Each structure stands twice: as structure tokens, then as C-alpha cells.
């Protein structure tokens, strides 16, 4: 029985990003704050909080980072260690790798768990579309955009979307708890077969 | 690549010869006419204080993409077939009017393709080395009557458009290229289908969210806060409302698309 369960779990991990609902199917090339090229599935296998922002944004985007940090802090330690955070710029012209790196450092975002990424304009539109984020460039070079934090499961499927800003959304934390549980179960089931 | 282009030119010439009897096509009517740039007063101003939009020169498909053209695309891009497409990129109605995953059915060949999502339309245009037109580009070209580039103040033209819209949605779609070309040489912008635009996902973002702290207000009330000008252009406003109600994976029996591309200056 345990063997069967393990086999099923193994199968589930093989299917991964091919899962029909995975947003990791957006074929975008991201550059992270170190200039390393990544794909959308940079944090595949982890629960991920993903949102879009632009670095020169005066108000809503610092608040978005605050929101992600508050969520991270409010999560239980076991979930926090698995959680990853992905911020994708909607302003590839001005958010260069150097600017993203500086932003990450000034906000003291741990680069092993936080990725600040830029991509090309066409990919920005596609990523925004799968996340349901609306944005519009303004004549002054700024952007209007909806501030939505999306929780992805290990396969990149959308599990919850929150528009609560400035504090951890309790429902988002509940969803994170729900999707982090199976990973623990997987470890327990996997151990006997490994031996 | 050059070889391919030459090959394609022969094919295009051959195709033109073949279709010239059935359709009003000739070498004088390019598939994607160049649209001169200009300044334009949009119903959707870029910001409350900015009235005019500058349109850069671009090319726009003369007619919407047909089912036949879309079927050709699917042969080389099978991941967009209705039986293979990822559900994040298209809803359940995607290409549901076709007889089979690669067969639109004879009667649909020359009709504009509909039941396509924004993602699929974007992929089609990218495969042609093109893109979807931006809303302001679409609006700019769609403001033209057969005689004037901006006919929006012509009551007769406005009335004609409104009567088209009141008829649309009934009966099967007509074949593309059935309406008179406008002053830019573009056809079927009104009275046939709705059309996806590149920035469909950002048209009704409120103008002033940066001072707000509540995303809820942004998401649900922002749309009402947008200043839309020229309210007498009812048909255009309807189109914006339609586009804004569609998520990028949604499809509709009356929503199709055409492609656009940039014109490089100095060539």
C-alpha cells in the first residue's frame, strides 16, 4: 500500500509543470537580481508567492514587498522554510538587473528565497495575463497596476489570490497551510521505501 | 531564410491568382497595409491630463485572421490545438465551433476565426513575426470611414456603425473582406466581430491607484473611476467594455483578432 502511494506520488512529481493548470507553461525567460537566466518555474517544488511590481513605484510596490514579508513572518516556521517569493517587474526598461539587485539589498530580501526578476515586454503581458494582473503604462513613465499576490503550489498552479495589502491575509495563510501539508505527508510516505 | 521568403513569395503569388476570382484581392491591396502615424484623441486617454495619443507608424492586417489561416498555424504549433491546449491559456469553448481539432469545416474557412483566447491570438501573431494591435492603434484605424481618416464627428457614419452593431450577433459570421475598405485600406473593423488587442488586460485600470492603499478599491471600483471621453462614441465604448470583461483565457463566439507589426523607420 505504501509502495503504491509512493509510486503515485512519484508520478505526481513527474507530471509537474505539465499539469494543465500550471502557470509555469508561460515560456518566459526571467533574469533574476544576479543576472542569472531563469524560467517561470525557478521555484518549482515549493509553494511560491508571486506578484508583479515596478521598482520606481513610489507607494503600492513598497507596500507589496511589506505584504509579502508580513505573510512570510506570519507563516509557521515549517511552512516559512519552504515558501519562496517571486517578484516580476512590469517595467523592464527601467528595472535593470542592477536596479533589482540594489532594491533587494536595500529591502534586505534573502536572495536564496526571494527572486526579483525582469523579462521582455511580451512576456510581462503573458505573465500578467495568467496572474490576472491588470496594468497600464502612464505618460509619466509610471504604471497603474492591480496589486494581487498569488499563491502557487509546487506545480505552479494558482491556489489562492489575495488583494489584501499591508498585512498577512489570513485566508492566504490558510491556503498556504493546506498546500504545505501534502509535502510533509510525502516525506513520511517516502522514507520507508528509501530504506 | 531568404530562400524561404522567395518560396513564400511564389506561393503568395500563386495564392493570389487562385483567389482573385472569388475575392476582391489584387496586388494593389496588401495583406497588411502600412498605417501612417499621427496624433489621436482617444476615448481612453492615457491619463486624465493627457488628451492625445501619439500613434507610431505600423502595419495592420487588412482583414481578421480566418479559420483557415488559424488551422494552418495549428499544423506547425500543435500545442494550440483545442485537444492539447493548456487550460491556463484557453477556456472550454476554445475552437469549439470546429468539426475536428484541425478541421474548421468547409463553411468556416473564409470566416474570421472566433472562440480564440488572447493567449492563442498572441501566439498566432508571434508566429507570423507580428503582434496584436494595441488598443489605441485599433481605435485610431477604426475611426476611419471609407473617405475620412477620422470620421467620428460624421453623424451619418456614426449611425451606420451603430446599426451594424445592433445587427451583429445574429446568424453565421460573414466571410472576411466583405465590407468596404476604410480610408486606411482596412476592412471588417466594424459589424463583423470583436477583436482582441495586445493591451486588453490593462484598458480599464483606474488612473490613480498609486495613492490608494486598498487594492480592493483598485480591483473592483477602479473600472468605474476611469475617465472615458467622447461618450457619444457609444460603439467604441461598447467594445472597450466587451474587451475588459474578457479574461485572457476566455473565448467568445464573436471575438476574433488580426495582427499588427511595427514599421521600422528609415526602411
Number of strands of chain B: 7
**Span from first to last CA of chain B?**
19 Å
CATH class of the largest domain in chain B: Alpha Beta
Sheet-strand content of chain A, in percent, reads 15-25%
Going by CATH, the homologous superfamily of chain A would be: Glutaredoxin
Structural class of chain A: alpha/beta
The total domain count of chain B is 2
**Relevant CATH superfamily of the largest domain in chain B:** paralog of FGE (formylglycine-generating enzyme)
**Main beta sheet of chain B, described?**
3 strands, antiparallel
List keywords for this structure.
heterodimer, A: alpha/beta, Glutaredoxin, two-stranded antiparallel ribbon, 6 helices, 9 strands, 41% helix, 19% strand, disordered C terminus, B: 267 residues, mainly alpha, paralog of FGE (formylglycine-generating enzyme), 7 helices, 7 strands
Secondary structure topology:
The complex is a heterodimer of chains A (195) and B (267).
Chain A: H1 2-15, E1 29-31, E2 37-39, E3 48-53, H2 60-74, H3 77-80, E4 84-89, H4 97-106, E5 114-117, H5 121-131, E6 135-137, E7 143-145, E8 149-152, E9 158-162, H6 170-194
Parallel strand pairs in A: 3-4, 4-5
Antiparallel strand pairs in A: 1-2, 3-8, 6-7, 8-9
Chain B: H1 2-19, E1 34-35, E2 38-41, E3 52-55, E4 58-60, H2 67-76, H3 118-127, H4 135-142, H5 155-167, E5 194-195, H6 215-225, H7 234-245, E6 255-256, E7 260-262
Parallel strand pairs in B: 5-6
Antiparallel strand pairs in B: 1-4, 2-3, 4-7
Amino acid at each position: 500500500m505504501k509502495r503504491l502511494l509512493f509510486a503515485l506520488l512519484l508520478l505526481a512529481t513527474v507530471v509537474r509543470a505539465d499539469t494543465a493548470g500550471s502557470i509555469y507553461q508561460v515560456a518566459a525567460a526571467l533574469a533574476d537580481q544576479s543576472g542569472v537566466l531563469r524560467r517561470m518555474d525557478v521555484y518549482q517544488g515549493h509553494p511560491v508567492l508571486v506578484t508583479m511590481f515596478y521598482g520606481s513605484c513610489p507607494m503600492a510596490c513598497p507596500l507589496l514587498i511589506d505584504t509579502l514579508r508580513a505573510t512570510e513572518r506570519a507563516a509557521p516556521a515549517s511552512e516559512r522554510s519552504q515558501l519562496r517569493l517571486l517578484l516580476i517587474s512590469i517595467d523592464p526598461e527601467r528595472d535593470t538587473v542592477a536596479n533589482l539587485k540594489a532594491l533587494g539589498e536595500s529591502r534586505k530580501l534573502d536572495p536564496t528565497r526571494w527572486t526579483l526578476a525582469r523579462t521582455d515586454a511580451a512576456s510581462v503581458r503573458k505573465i500578467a495575463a495568467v496572474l490576472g494582473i491588470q496594468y497600464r503604462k502612464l505618460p509619466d513613465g509610471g504604471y497603474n497596476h492591480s496589486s494581487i499576490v498569488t499563491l502557487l503550489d509546487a506545480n505552479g498552479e494558482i491556489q489562492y489570490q489575495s488583494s489584501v495589502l499591508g498585512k498577512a491575509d489570513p485566508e492566504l495563510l490558510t491556503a498556504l497551510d493546506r498546500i504545505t501539508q501534502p509535502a510533509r505527508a510525502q516525506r513520511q510516505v517516502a522514507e520507508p521505501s528509501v530504506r | 531564410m531568404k530562400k524561404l521568403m522567395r518560396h513564400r513569395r511564389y506561393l503568395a503569388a500563386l495564392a493570389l491568382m487562385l483567389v482573385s476570382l472569388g475575392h476582391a484581392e489584387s496586388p494593389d491591396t496588401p495583406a497588411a497595409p502600412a498605417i501612417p502615424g499621427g496624433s489621436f484623441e482617444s476615448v481612453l486617454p492615457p491619463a486624465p491630463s493627457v488628451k492625445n495619443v501619439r500613434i507610431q507608424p505600423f502595419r495592420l492586417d487588412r482583414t481578421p485572421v480566418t479559420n483557415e489561416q488559424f488551422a494552418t498555424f495549428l499544423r506547425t504549433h500543435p500545442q494550440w490545438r483545442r485537444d492539447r491546449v493548456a487550460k491556463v491559456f484557453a477556456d472550454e469553448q476554445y475552437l469549439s465551433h470546429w468539426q475536428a481539432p484541425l478541421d474548421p469545416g468547409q463553411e468556416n474557412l473564409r470566416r474570421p476565426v472566433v472562440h480564440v483566447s488572447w493567449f492563442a491570438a498572441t501566439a498566432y501573431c508571434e508566429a507570423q513575426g507580428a503582434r496584436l494591435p494595441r488598443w489605441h492603434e485599433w481605435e485610431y484605424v477604426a475611426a476611419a470611414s471609407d473617405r475620412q481618416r477620422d470620421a467620428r464627428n460624421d453623424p451619418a457614419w456614426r449611425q451606420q456603425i451603430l446599426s451594424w452593431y445592433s445587427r451583429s450577433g445574429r446568424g453565421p459570421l460573414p466571410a472576411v473582406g466583405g465590407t468596404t475598405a476604410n480610408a486606411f485600406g482596412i476592412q471588417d473593423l466594424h459589424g463583423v466581430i470583436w477583436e482582441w488587442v495586445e493591451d486588453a488586460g490593462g484598458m480599464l485600470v483606474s488612473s490613480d491607484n498609486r495613492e490608494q492603499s486598498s487594492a480592493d478599491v483598485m480591483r473592483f471600483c477602479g473600472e468605474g473611476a476611469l475617465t472615458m471621453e467622447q461618450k457619444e462614441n457609444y460603439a467604441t465604448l461598447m467594445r472597450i467594455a466587451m474587451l475588459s470583461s474578457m479574461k485572457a483565457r476566455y473565448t467568445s463566439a464573436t471575438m476574433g483578432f488580426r495582427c499588427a507589426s511595427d514599421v521600422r523607420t528609415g526602411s
